[in-house]
Amino acid sequence: MNEFFVDLGRRWVAASERRGSKITAPTLDARVALELLELARAAAHTHERRFAPLSCYLAGVASERMRSARPDFDDGAAAAYIHEVWKELEGEPAEPT
Question: Domain range for residue 34?
Answer without folding.
Answer: 28-89
